[in-house]
Amino acid sequence: MRKLLLSFFLCFVILQNVNAQSNEASLLGPLITQYQADENMFNRKYALKRSDEYFKRLETFYAEWLKKLKSLPFDKLTKNERVDYLLLKRDINADIRALKQSETEFANTKFSVPFDNALIDFEQKRRVGKQQNGKETAQKFQELIEVINQTDKAVENGSLTVNPVQANWAQQTVNQHLTVFTEAYKFYDGYDPQFTKETKKVYPEVLEALKNYSKTLGKTAKLSVAKDDGSGIIGNPIGRASFLDLLNDEMIAYTPEQIEAIAMKEFAWCDAEMLKASQQMGFGNDWKKALEKVKTAYPELGKQPELVYELANEAINFVEANKLIEVPQLAKEGWRMRMLSPQEQQFAPFFLGGESVLIAYPTEDMSEDAKMMTLRGNNRHFSRAVVFHELIPGHNLQYFMQSRYKTYRRGFSTPFWSEGWSLYWEMLLWDKNFAKTPEDKIGMLFWRMHRCARIIFSMNYHLNKWTPKQCIDFLVDRVGFERANAEAEVRRSFTGGYGPLYQIGYMLGGLQFRALHKELVQSGKLTNVQFHDRILKENNMPVEMVRALLTNQILPENFSTKWKFAGALN
To answer: What tens digit of pLDDT does each residue of 357-413 get?
Structure first.
């Protein structure tokens, strides 16, 4: 009886300690919120992000914040506050580096927008409410049109040479000027009679000149890339040095070569399991035939949303029945569904998720080939393996908890935490025998192979080793993608607004959480429920910082990443 009481008391103490740490206030919390708000304010005020004025103001801003951070008594900070301190310092330094890179890019490509000073001058005067003389402004607009048209013609006939990346940059810059110029003009139009009278006719001509130049730049970029690759996918490989910088920011203590070795090791595991499932289905070692069979198991048209609802509740019931995590009732009640448009499916051929689950499925205006690829790529077994990734216990539950606990940490967002968490659940549910049939196993393995492939193709692309077309072929040949789905996946990876490390964050983040689970849950230090609850309540951050909090590490001010979560690699 005494042993039972002692055991109960120890569990109670551990639980109270976990809850106390999850709710611990941080001296840095308000500072982090202030930094993020200040930075957002400057980005609103200085709408033109590609100008000397913007670069100089942000340089001063970041320097002031580093000085403010340095003035804090680091040695007196709690473990929780030290994590916040190190993450804020990391963010400021990363922002400084990104600003310098943008400034260098600006200096090297400014020749493609020789008319920007006139637009900047007009916007600066509007910003302080200065009245602008209508006749003088109309004359400046005429001069502006001439320079824009001359530049447009020079790019079109080749007398002004821009490479694909420069053309892309210039088009984005021109589009930014278009937005800002339109807003600035409307500030005066109709409110200042003399200005409106003199500029009304010439204003649309400025817009037309900017739009025409933007189109020329877009065509130039696409044509240049098409000659090199043929995929039509325009990206911007960052190179090895920048890749290493980003790995350091994300607290990943491996080189690109070691990361590829990790991916290949995981691929080998997937291959072995695929063969087992294929043999169980009667296809021997030809797992691609088994995969083709699985792809035919799709619901009839119109039935996919019902399947998604069924699969979502199946996953929730499974994690609760196995005492893996406690799901708040409101989280179970609050998720929604919507359908992805055909245009969205060009970038997202499978499910997406978060506050809602977004369903990729055929529409009546798609071609028959496109319909079939969407059906096959979103079959029952693929869907069963990904709905919980997008909803509960995956992204939907993450977002639910992020908006309720330590919300200031949402600014530390990283795919290694967000995507890594959902991928980790794919691993954990596999271990807990969530897959009922060989077909279910193949559905889960397809996604796991997909994550391995994402590491390999995205990293080789950004290291300037592979082209987008090679990435597409790799997904088709190595993972069994439908070609249209592979094209959409690569297009999304390189032109969908995702960071260069986003795609490697799935598998590596999942392995980080898995290693931490082994360290804390399999060792008996925490239960599954305690472990998962604590992670969600600490909010988004590099997983090594999650580990520091859960293992009560006292971090030094000069902390550098060193966690070998996948073991030592050559």
So the answer is: 777 777 777 777 777 777 777 788 888 888 899 889 999 999 999 999 999 999 999
Q: What is the pTM of this model?
A: 0.85
For residues 191 and 369, what is the distance between their CA atoms, to the nearest angstrom?
A: 54
pLDDT 10s digits, 413-438 = 999 999 999 999 999 999 999 999 99
In which band, very low, low, confident or very high, does the pLDDT at 142 lie, cut at 50, 70 and 90? very high
Question: From the CB of residue 183, how many other CB atoms can be counted at a distance below 10 Å?
Answer: 12
Q: Report yes or no: 514 and 507 within 8 Å, Cβ to Cβ.
A: no
C-alpha dihedral sign at 216, 219, 223, 225: positive
Q: CA-to-CA distance for 291 and 261, rounded, in angstroms?
A: 25
Distance separating alpha carbons of residues 322 and 478, to the nearest angstrom:
34
CA pseudo-torsion sign 183, 184, 187, 191: negative
Residue 358, phi then psi, degrees to nearest 5: -105, 120
In whole angstroms, give the CA distance from residue 49 to residue 100: 13
Both ends of the chain: CA-CA distance in Å? 52
- CA-wise closest residue to 378 among 362, 367, 393: 362
Which residues contact residue 329 at a Cβ distance below 8 angstroms, ignoring those fewer than 6 apart?
none
**Per-residue pLDDT tens for 440-477?**
999 999 999 999 999 999 999 999 999 999 999 999 99
Please report the pLDDT score of residue 2 as a whole number.
47
Sorted by where each begins, the domain ranges of the chain are: 2-109, 127-228, 242-550
Identify residue 462 by its one-letter amino acid code.
Answer: H
Report the C-alpha gap between 283 and 275 in whole angstroms. Answer: 9
CA 94 to chain centre: 16
Closest CA to 474 of 484, 486, 485: 486
Whole-angstrom distance, CA of residue 247 vs CA of residue 561: 10
Pairing of strands 336-339, 352-353: unpaired
Q: CA-to-CA distance for 488 and 399, rounded, in angstroms?
A: 26
Residues with Cβ within 8 Å of 159's Cβ and at least 6 positions away in sequence, in order, are none
DSSP assignment of 352-379 equals EESSEEEE----TTS-HHHHHHHHHHT-
Q: Alpha carbon of 98 to those of 55, 133, 413, 541: distances in Å?
A: 11, 38, 16, 19
Contact of 390 with 351, CB cutoff 8 Å: yes
Residue type, 365: D
Residue that is written with structure tokens 């049939």 in the block: 437
